[in-house]
Amino acid sequence: MSFWRGDYRGLGLALPSAPLGFDQPGPDWSGMKVSSLNKPLLEEWDMVSQIMDEGDVERWMKQAPHPFAMAYAGHQYGHFTMLGDGRALLVGEWQNASNQCYDIHLKGSGPTSFARRGDGQATLRSMLREFLISEALHGLGVPTTRSLMVLETPHKVWRDYDQRGGVLVRVAPHHVRIGTLEYAIRALNPDDYALYAGAVLQRTTQCWAKEPSLGPEKSLYTPSSWRPEAVVAFFVDWSLRQAELLAHWMRVGFVHGVLNTDNISLLGVTMDLGPCAFVNAYDLNRSFSSIDTQGRYAWGHQVEVMEWNASVLLSCLLPLLADDGNTTNAMPVARALLDQFRAQCQEAKTRMHFRKLGLDSAKGHGDDRVLALVEEWQSWLSVQQPDYALVYLELEKILAETLEGGPSKDSGSSLDFDSIFNANPQSLPSGAWLSGWLRVLGESEGGDSAALHRMQENNPSLIPRNHWVEQALDQRVLHGSTGLWDELRTAMENPYQRHDRFKHLNQPPQHGDAGYQTFCGT
Ligand code: AMP
Ligand code: MG
């Protein structure tokens, strides 16, 4: 059985002191039209029988408990700010037939008590973009909040000029951010904060364990106090997930764009896909967001900034880490956890670099010869700045050709590495590097074919290139043509499949992407 749960507001309102959000009037559903529907997700979550068309969406949403805007704060570009769901609403929690629970969250559904001077709206174009990219990330194997549908509103939204309005219906096991704890630690008295934070940690670990909920009568957010050891275990788990997430972002060339603490999920998944984009050329300093003028959230700086965010999370966990109530005593533990997170990020990144080159990340880690190869490759990428997705595909092709070409490379003598290099100067650092790389692959367990398989699993044959995404959105929103949108959606369902059908979608823009920018609050 699948159903709306009624207790989601227990997250904040069950507490005796300040509520962590406000009930809101529901959105006006009249005139809303379904613009995009994620059918596979609807099926996965047993909603398909409920939602077939606009009328069903309205009926289904109206059965949801009642809309709630969550309070949160955050450090934006390093500065503390009070925020909250200004244009978003938690409409309820859906429990599917496998007893898994998901928050159903609207974005662009109208101003809330946290809207400040914002209009609470979103453009259809930006919500479709978020839908497309979150589902593309999912296809790429990158943990993320998901998109269930985009609705078009009957109203125009003013962003420099009148645009079509949209609402994104997004889903995740919960939408608690680091910033949610930053708000709660300031808004609640210490006892309530401990109960609240404990409940959030408990719920998060339940989600990670994919533990089904216990039944409709049981609250998902039972306030509970946590032992310091359990809080340490929680943070270590979060760190591992976050380190892997960062490595995924680096692996596929994803730049989140606005890694403020209010946009960092406690679940360790990608969240708030506003000004995000994908790199074409390998440029660690590339940022796309119009307001990130200093490159604080540039592609290659994401690990460092996440360390900073992790320190904010730890500061929120300090009261739970100190069982004697003295947070100063918990500082050494927090410092050690931060150091550990730093190390986990580096390890996850190194493993990812290994796998992209077909190297076995479990072996050869401590082998200086292998490490030197990986480092030489990285430096070459930084200097040459080739197209990131294509260069690995070219490397893979060279490996496949030498495999097919037959003669064993174990001796390293039967192939003319210099002529292979001369034929592919844009994809290889040198003939000597090629010979070293092939020798290491040949010597590794499973040999070249296992290496080829690893490359195919870790290097997408397609990413949602910015210029194709923008073209698909232009065609859809401005000209009513869904051809390219549909093609991108289909292609991104299997981005590791090696075939030529969608090859054109993996071509970088003809004249580069120097002028490409993304924007917040669109
Ligand atoms: P973001 O940059 O999307 O992470 O949003 C930062 C904050 O601004 C959040 O509290 C949002 O709810 C709020 N916000 C962004 N756009 C709007 C808008 N158009 N109306 C009201 N609040 C908004
Ligand atoms: Mg945000």
Biggest beta sheet attributes: 6 strands, antiparallel
The fraction of residues in strands falls at 5-15%
Unique bound compounds: adenosine monophosphate, magnesium ion
Q: Count the domains.
A: 3
Number of helices: 15
What's the total number of strands? 12
* Low-confidence spans: 407-412
Tell me the strand order in the biggest sheet: 1-7-8-10-9-3
* Strand-pairing-aware structural class: alpha+beta
Rounded to an integer in angstroms, the radius of gyration calculated over CA atoms is 24 Å
The general outline is globular
Order of helices and strands: EEEHHEEEEEHEEHHHEEHHHHHHHHH
Q: Quick check: average pLDDT? A: 91
Amino-to-carboxy terminus distance: 38 Å
Helix content: 40-55%
